[in-house]
Amino acid sequence: MYPKLVINLKKLQDNLNACATITKDHGKCSLMIVTKGLCADKEMVNMLAESDVVDYIADSRVKNIATFAENARAHGKKTVLLRIPMHCEVEEVVKYVDLSFNSELSTIRLLNEEAGKAGKVHNILLMIDLGDLREGIFFQNEDLIFQAVEEILAMENINLYGIGVNLTCYGAIIPKYDNLSKLVEIGKKIEDKFGIKLEMVSGGNSSSIYLVDKGELPEGINNLRLGESFLLGNDTAYETKLPGTVSDALILQAQIIELKEKPSLPIGEVGVDAFGEKPYYEDRGIMKRAIIGIGKQDTDLGSMTPVDSQVEIMGGSSDHIILDVTHCDKEYKVGDIVEFELGYGGMLKTATSAYVEREYIR
Ligand SMILES: *Cc1c(COP(=O)(O)O)cnc(C)c1O
């Protein structure tokens, strides 16, 4: 059945090994693989759980982690929650998550309570905001950081596992030697002031990996968290391909449901489209237009690239995508399959859609 996401586990394994070579061999960091881009796909998680190079398996959603916690733990991997927990989910966090990222004392207090009830010690990573302005205690407010650490260290059922930063997500700030050194420095100050040792200083996501082979990852950063680098082979700071990775481990397939010659300009008064937007049309004369059975409900039109470079995406609505196949060497017909490589947004939406089937290549 189509549409279908074809997941090539062999290629993902190659991407994983390439990421591990850079992160662990060259960068002397532990490797946290992030599964949210593919909604913690079960087969992918099996591969990660069985891998020797993966140290932590992370996701932003507790619901995803709940599906793999048992499997990950059975293989000696810690489960990690990347998104700061909601108050309403602390019970599930303590149950399924071995290490959660945090920035709010009110939430950490609740985690402490829940961990106490469960007879556990829950690990947390305290997030520091170095200027990207998403989560974390702002780095310039060192007093607030120390106050938080002091209170956390007094909690009976919480272990301060380390500190971390996230960059290039909201503010699009690029990790550099300078800003990541700031994190290492804050970590050292915490260790000196409180006489403790932090197990983890986590230096970011797929936008930090480029620093390793440039020799610019500051000493003291000992963990990287990789989602997109593993799934799509990308360094997301400068959008380069990482050596040894491929971008086509995931392929979206959709079936042509209509193929007709029609004009390129709609006829009649132009209002707004199904999403309330005013469309723009270019007059290309009579065109060969193919409609495929997938739409904006299932994918992101701006984040998919036809494998046949002569196919062009014209636009779409909830359940349809219209392709210009006028200039294709291949004679497409109704029932044919069109293939696409995916970007991050396209991958996320196709993996989330209940209408997209999955097939695995092993
Ligand atoms: C999503 C996320 C990651 C992984 O990001 P990629 O760009 O896919 O590597 C790492 N850390 C946090 C906190 C995240 O939310």
Which hetero compounds are present in the coordinates? pyridoxal-5'-phosphate
Gyration radius from CA atoms, angstroms: 23 Å
Total E-strand runs: 19
- List the helices and strands in order: EHEHEHEHEHEEHEHEHEHEEEEEEEEHE
Shape: elongated
Measured as a percent range, the helix fraction is 25-40%
Low-confidence stretches: none
How do the helices and strands line up, and which of them pair or pack?
Elements lengths: L3 E5 H18 L3 E5 L7 H9 L5 E4 L2 H13 L3 E4 L8 H7 L2 E4 L2 H14 L3 E8 L7 E2 L3 H12 L4 E7 L12 H18 L5 E3 L7 H4 L9 E4 L1 H5 L1 E2 L4 E2 L8 E14 L22 E7 L11 E3 L5 E5 L4 E4 L12 E6 L1 H9 L4 E5 L1
Parallel strand pairs: 1-19, 2-3, 2-10, 3-4, 4-5, 5-6, 6-7, 6-8, 8-9
Antiparallel strand pairs: 1-13, 11-12, 13-14, 13-18, 14-17, 15-18, 16-17
Helix pairs in contact: 2-3, 4-5
Pyridoxal-5'-phosphate (PLP) binds next to strand 10 and helix 9.
Description:
With 362 residues, the chain is of the alpha/beta class. It is built from 10 helices and 19 strands. The chain has helices at 9-26, 42-50, 62-74, 90-96, 105-118, 142-153, 177-194, 210-213, 228-232, 344-352, and strands at residues 4-8, 30-34, 56-59, 78-81, 99-102, 122-129, 137-138, 158-164, 200-202, 223-226, 234-235, 240-241, 250-263, 286-292, 304-306, 312-316, 321-324, 337-342, 357-361. The structure holds pyridoxal-5'-phosphate (PLP). Pyridoxal-5'-phosphate binds at residues 34, 36-37, 60, 82, 166, 205-206, 225-229, 236.
Provide a quick synopsis of the model.
With 362 residues, this protein is of the alpha/beta class. It is 30% helix and 26% strand.
